[in-house]
Batch of 2 targets.
Target 1
Amino acid sequence: MDFVHVPVMFDEVLSSFDNDPLVYVDLTSGGGGHDAGILEKYPNVKAVLVDRDQDAVAHLKEKFASFPNVTVVHAPFSEIDKVMFLLQIPKADIVFADLGVSSFQFDTPHRGFSMQKDGPMDMRMDKTSQLTALDFIKSSTEGELRNILSLYAQEREAGTVARALKKCADEGMTTTLQFADAIRKAKRYAKKGIDPSTQVFMALRMAVNDELGELESALKKAFPLLSNKGIMGVITFHSTEDRIVKNFFRDRKNGVPFYADERDAVPVCSNASFAVDMITPTDEECDRNPRARSAKFRLLKRG
Ligand SMILES: C[S@@+](CC[C@H](N)C(=O)[O-])C[C@H]1O[C@@H](n2cnc3c(N)ncnc32)[C@H](O)[C@@H]1O
């Protein structure tokens, strides 16, 4: 399997993780690009590589087969507490996440993420999960779709697009190109040089994979795992997900207690001091890799 993905902010990630870790956890291992760098820098680190995509997991197992210190786990990152419990690894010195989809997922037509290449309206990162994008459109009301489009994509024509999505599903359309074409026809306004279906597809993907819910949950579950030299680093690509990470890190810096799980009776309280930081990609990287343009790398460092 050819797994193509250029890791974003590779040098910044490697230089920020400077705490000589014993345990490194990647919540979104994907093509393992960042992980290869970490393993080169810290050859003896115990690495736990998580992804909820089976194709990514198969690729990672192959890529790191000769590393006895690497464990690859298929799981949603909202379950990182359970993963670490089962592996009997109580603490992590680095917890890293590079959010969103990989180029491999995006460019593989049958995964249904692309509005340029035809495939089923699927968009599931985890193929064992129940709801495809088509199911999501069919089972949502027009109003629900409109809200998703406004919330995740700040779509100005959310009502029009929601109606078009429902109409496509009612008429029996099932493929990405059919939906993308209907969105393009329905929308009256488009930013120059940007396919009008781009933001709509992103919003559907975020909803199908509950990306914001997963992120909120993962931050809460991962924070208590940080060791006394722990660093958490998250690369975001979307303003709403970035706000979630920024606020979470700010609250930890300010020592605000929180519940790691809504069923918990006792909140997580930490007296440790933390520093926060935010790094953006260089212009040179943005020119070389357009995917990097919206990236922000946020750090929470124990210190
Ligand atoms: C941008 S890619 C990561 C690329 C990786 N850093 C590299 O260098 O190859 C994001 C990956 O995160 C995975 N992912 C997204 N949300 C996830 C979640 N909630 N749980 C686990 N994996 C997730 C996706 O399946 C995808 O493989």
Target 2
Amino acid sequence: MLSLFAQVDQYIEQLVANEDTELVMARQAISKAGWADQSISPVQGKLLQFFARSCQAKRILEVGTFGAYSTLWLAKALPPEGKLITIESDQEHAEHAIHIIQQSAHQHQIELLQGTGLHCMTELLSQRGAPFDFFFIDADKPPYLEYFQLAIKLARKGSIIVCDNVIRNGKVLDETSNDEKVIGVRRLNNYLKDCKEVTAVILQTVGNKEYDGMVLAVVN
Ligand SMILES: C[S@@+](CC[C@H](N)C(=O)[O-])C[C@H]1O[C@@H](n2cnc3c(N)ncnc32)[C@H](O)[C@@H]1O
């Protein structure tokens, strides 16, 4: 039987977070590829859209594309002149995601950079382009703090930064954990305590996915 959290997630999904055909196709393609689904849930996709819309995002940066599922949710929040850059280090994931993106009505608004998050974000910084309005950080956990600090440098006042998977089934409570993912997200979470550059909160997330959480930050 589905847990109560999963049932309520489905209830919310059918009310306000229905997948369109592109999102259904992206999710099905992940299972056809034989991969465990690392994507966010539909309700979390809608939450990202909500934040992107609320800061009127015209430029979005995502770190961790996987099957482009979150990419598509976010691209759908852009105005016609908007642009989304998504970064993926794994070649197989990147090639798969490009194939999915090419089938989207938003394909001309999405650019996939293949490389590590740290390398690509540093490159973007050196290009001194327009600031990004919204960031979704959802890649490897050890450099989460560095991703966050780079995001602040690539942002403007009022930009929103969301970082996924920062509670990890409550494992973040274990100060002595030697799990590199826990250590990585704890470095970011601890940094927020005295960070004057953002106004931040950490939201616990329940639903279809494992018990986890997201950092939500707005740049001061
Ligand atoms: C949790 S999945 C992303 C899921 C996606 N955001 C979604 O919700 O549809 C994490 C992705 O980050 C990628 N990744 C891992 N290390 C990375 C790195 N150093 N730089 C960029 N991407 C990385 C993985 O290959 C994987 O595809």
